[in-house]
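Translate structure to sequence.
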């Protein structure tokens, strides 16, 4: 056991025997060696506990923790409670770390004392399993780097791959740690940290290989359904000071699906003064008491605050360009909403 680890790696495990050996090998190859691994077994019924036990017999930095079955959020909180280091690095049993991941992220946190969290860019693998939707998501995620960009893009989608993050343990625990509920536990934590004013950033380097597989929780667990994300975003948006400033509110996107998603926020007391759309068939209509207008309607003073509910990343890039040309600044005058 490392006497005073710099980093506590929180590694929840459930039935990961097929991928766990590669994960553990990537930990053993780290250039920074002063760490501990809290391998928290969440009720595995395969050979995962035996694999961890064998690894711990070879490496005293690995601590097996038989915790489950307790569920992922609770397992993560067990890791936070047991961590001996002031800094926590997340890892999943089916992913692989770059050898310099811990060293580079630790250096970034120490060099920027105001940061609460530092993530990294990630690459998805195996290539044959990575489909267009995930490639587009990672293209977006990997360019959200600075604290300012994270704050401006936080409502689009989760800006970090969970196993790529490293954060001050105190920062996570002071906002309540992970909360078990009908939502993605990592995104909910990032939103709470953002609401608390904690700066988060990302290193512009791929330091994690993120495994894509059809049985991944993000594809099978109801906590990761579109409705769960929509409800979570609406809850935190309704508390965001930028929406409570008194500026008129405009929703970009007047289609049926967008209206249903926006309804969650409208019902919390944030009706639009206008809807923006480029479809000539919609322009001129009235939806829930507000007119549907062309983008040129936004060329006015004082500027309203715009919520861009368009989900296609390519289309959102075009909208960003139009709004920029009209003098709108992301984060100050508009936000993307996934």
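Result:
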């Amino acid at each position: 056991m490392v006497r005073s680890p710099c980093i506590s790696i929180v590694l929840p495990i459930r039935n990961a025997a097929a991928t766990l050996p590669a994960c553990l090998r990537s930990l053993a190859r780290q250039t920074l060696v002063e760490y501990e691994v809290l391998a928290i077994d969440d009720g595995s019924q395969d050979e995962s506990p035996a694999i961890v036990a064998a690894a711990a017999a070879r490496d005293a930095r690995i601590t097996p923790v038989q915790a489950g079955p307790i569920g992922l959020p609770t397992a993560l909180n067990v890791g936070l409670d047991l961590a001996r280091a002031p800094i926590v690095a997340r890892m999943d049993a089916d992913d692989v770390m770059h050898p310099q991941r811990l060293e580079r992220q630790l250096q970034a946190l120490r060099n920027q004392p105001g940061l609460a969290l530092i993530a990294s860019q990630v690459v998805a693998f195996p290539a044959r399993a990575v489909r267009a939707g995930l490639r587009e998501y990672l293209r977006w995620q990997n360019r959200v780097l600075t604290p300012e960009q994270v704050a401006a893009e936080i409502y689009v989608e989760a800006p970090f791959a969970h196993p790529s993050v490293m954060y001050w343990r105190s920062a996570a625990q002071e906002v309540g740690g992970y909360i078990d509920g009908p939502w993605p536990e990592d995104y909910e934590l990032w939103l709470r940290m953002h609401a608390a004013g904690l700066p988060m950033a990302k290193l512009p380097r791929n330091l994690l290989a993120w495994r894509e597989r059809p049985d991944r929780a993000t594809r099978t667990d109801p906590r990761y359904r579109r409705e769960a994300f929509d409800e979570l975003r609406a809850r935190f948006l309704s508390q965001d000071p930028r929406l409570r400033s008194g500026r008129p509110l405009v929703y970009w996107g007047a289609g049926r699906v967008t209206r249903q998603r926006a309804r969650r926020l409208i019902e919390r007391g944030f009706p639009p003064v206008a809807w923006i759309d480029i479809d000539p068939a919609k322009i001129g209509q009235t939806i829930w008491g507000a007119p549907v207008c062309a983008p040129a309607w936004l060329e006015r003073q004082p500027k309203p605050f715009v919520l861009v509910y368009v989900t296609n990343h390519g289309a959102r890039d075009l909208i960003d360009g139009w709004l920029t040309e009209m003098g709108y600044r992301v984060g100050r005058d508009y936000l993307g909403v996934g």
